[in-house]
Amino acid sequence: MKVMNRVLGLSLLAALTHSPVWAQSQVDPFTAQPAADWTALFKRSSGWTGADGVYSIPLAGDERPGSGASQRTLVWFSDTFVGTVRPDGSRTATTMVNNTTAVIDGAMPDASSLSFQVRHKGSGWQSMVKPPDASQWFWPNDGVVVGSRVYTFALRMKSADTPPFAFATAGISLLSASALEAAPFSASYKQVDAPLFVPAVAGGAGESSFGQAVMLHTAAAGAPRADGYLYVFGTRSAEYVKRLLVARVKPEKIGSFAAYRFWDGKAWNADIRSAAAVTSGVSSEFSVHPLPDGRFMLTHMTDTLGKQVAVRYGDSPVGPWGKDVILWDCPEASLTPNTFVYGAKAHPHLSTPTELLVSYHVNTFDFAENFRAGGVEIYRPRFLKVPLR
């Protein structure tokens, strides 16, 4: 009976892994269209009124395109406005906190299935997660569910005299909480420092950090041609460009940093300083997911502060990676003379079998614009739907 149950279980797993939801994987240039229903979901007049980040984590651990319909999704945001929006679109009585979350029940852009979480203490709003050092803050990046816990790699940030962006990376932390809670991280959570950051070397390599994107390449996650690894992607900064780095670890070892291996251009190496760039011109935030034909798709914004959403195809998680396929010119880059766009990434499990859901951010170099008439149009996510064939 045990043997029969195991055979049936493996057959079911194989059926899920090769489900028709993986049938499409190709996109054509400039075919993206606005996903107006998803964008409208995040235009709000009270409470949570805007943020960037927008990392989505399927809480049942199923990463397959379309699987979000049968599970809940944790969404991480970075800097977030909390307050009120007037009828003219200006913000008032507003506080900015460094991170918040939301939970989506299912995969439909329905306000009734979306709940935002902002920590409140005493008379004020607070970030959902905080480092022990009060002078620092977290900007959560991508994450994954392993067993019954949800893990998130978070940038640990500090202030810096580096205009126009007055901040710098202090390190990386791995945050974790129960994936079974109604709103993970709203109650108890754990945080540990992760040795996944290498500061810049004077006259040498720029800083390297990992966790901007993760890819769970396991049969349990529904990945086609799974190899059983969790891939943790990062970047190395250079002047006006970011280069893609890759690490991997067995999922059950996600908190055992000695088990991480970094691609050095030829092999997987235990030394993070050996990590070699596998492609260049990626953005600070991005996503990577597997395709049914054995390739991989990188979704990002062209360059660090480009204005086009693009994808690249890779033959493996470490490449070789092809050229950008441009999907969309972001009109919000010209919303005002000060606005810019960034942070494009795909959300496969919230997509449909024939359309890939992609998000990106809109921001401004003039912070005061967020509080003027129409300011609510600036600092909130936009969504696209990209036809797949």
Any overview of this molecule?
Helices cover 6% and strands 45% of the residues. It has two helices and 26 strands. Strands 13, 14, 15, 16, 17, 18 and 19 form a seven-stranded antiparallel β-sheet that branches. The protein has one domain: Tachylectin-2, Chain A (5 Propeller), CATH 2.115.10. The N and C termini lie far apart (42 Å). A hairpin with a 2-residue loop joins strand 7 and strand 8 (124-126). The protein is mainly beta and 389 residues long.
In DSSP terms, counting alpha (H) and pi (I) runs of 4 or more, how many helices? 2
Q: How far apart lie the N and C ends?
A: 42 Å
Share of helical residues:
under 10%
Total tally of structural domains:
1
User: What is the succession of H and E elements?
Assistant: HEHEEEEEEEEEEEEEEEEEEEEEEEEE
- What is the assigned CATH homologous superfamily? Glycosyl hydrolase domain, family 43
Structural class computed from helices and strand pairing = mainly beta
Average of pLDDT: 92
Largest sheet, in brief, is: 7 strands, antiparallel
Q: Any guess at the CATH architecture?
A: 5 Propeller
For the CA atoms, what is the radius of gyration? 20 Å
Low-confidence stretches: 1-22
CATH topology: Tachylectin-2, Chain A
Give the overall shape.
Answer: globular
State which percent range the strand residues make up: 35-45%
DSSP E strands, number: 26
| Text of the CATH class | Mainly Beta
